[in-house]
Amino acid sequence: ERTLLIRPPSRQFTFTHIHGLRWDDVCDQPSFAESWPAILEYMEKAKFLVAHNAAFDRGVLTRCCEHYGLTAPARQFICTVQLARARWNIYPTRLPDVCRRLDIPLNHHEAGSDARACAEIALRARQEGWRP
User: Fold this and answer.
1) Three-state secondary structure along the chain?
2) Lowest mean pLDDT, pick from 18-22, 25-29, 53-57, 60-64
3) Is residue 33 part of a domain?
């Protein structure tokens, strides 16, 4: 498990009210391209990637790679929104709702906590016989 802060290509920030990050938090951090080898090392070990609302995360990863001229690894994305609906009929399916229903600890919008929660959702489904 590893959490990385990445310096975006500009000082313009959006959604600080959600994730709490500001330019001062990331200005001295490596860029996405500089962080890519460490990110890729994790991804190459994975059979698939798990995210809540995976289409969003896949899009961000694709756009980041395109911006820096990098090739994103061809990995299946498993969406824990869809998984929670299909396996447990959970609605609404915001990450805090799913975690509350499955009794999974969550510090919402803290990257490491969100990632652990998504992994736990997938592991719970697998314990019940789900296979990607």
Assistant:
1) CCCCCCECCCCCCCCHHHHCCCHHHHCCCCEHHHHHHHHHHHHHCCCEEEECCHHHHHHHHHHHHHHCCCCCCCCEEEEHHHHHHHHHCCCCCCHHHHHHHHCCCCCCCCHHHHHHHHHHHHHHHHHCCCCC
2) 18-22
3) yes
pTM, entire model = 0.91
- Total domains in the chain come to 1
Within a domain: 3: no
102: in domain: yes
Q: Would you place residue 99 in the very low, low, confident or very high pLDDT band (cuts 50, 70, 90)?
A: very high
